[in-house]
Amino acid sequence: MTTMADKDLNQLITALKTEAIEAAENEAAKILAKAHEQAQALEAAAQQRKQQLLKDAEAAAESRLQAGETALRQAARDLKVGLQQELFDLLQTVLEKEVRKSLTPDLIRAVIVPILENVGKDAEIQLPDEQLTDLLAHLRHQLKEEASSIKVKAGKLEEAHFQIRKTEEGWRYDITPEAITEALRPLLAKKWEQIL
Questions:
Q1: Residues 6+ apart with CB under 8 A from 96
Q2: What is the pLDDT of residue 194?
Q3: Cα separations (Å) of 83 from 97, 103, 191?
Q4: Which residue from 105, 115, 134, 150 has the highest number of Cβ atoms inside 10 Å of its Cβ?
């Protein structure tokens, strides 16, 4: 027979078990809730970190893209400037070659007289050795009165060169294909730029 004391003891044991189970269940629920809360916080932090990494990667990619575009524009500009300069140099070489071909003895004969008429008396002209005789006769014939005040000398000049000077005034002009080309270049440069 079970006595009252046994019943009370059984009830007490049952109550203790129930309380222990409830306490364990409550503690387990708290642990689960805390774990769930921590998991959500970790997931939110991971999402935030993921968003930041994506944002940083996009910014870095945009920066690299802009740097690449800038470098490409600079390279294109450098290429254009370099090519333009090479074309200018080529055009100057062609111009100088054409000027050299054009400075024939006949052209020199035609331009020397007006130059000397403008320069006036006491001028000195230096001509290439091979053109001296022919041009000297031409100058004397064309300049008549002024011819006696103009000194004509032979020099070791190239065929398409001549010099005019007035020593007492301290000036000298070297008429060469290079000098003519250099004088024409600024005039032609604008046309060349328009063409290019």
A1: 177, 178, 181
A2: 75
A3: 21, 30, 16
A4: 150
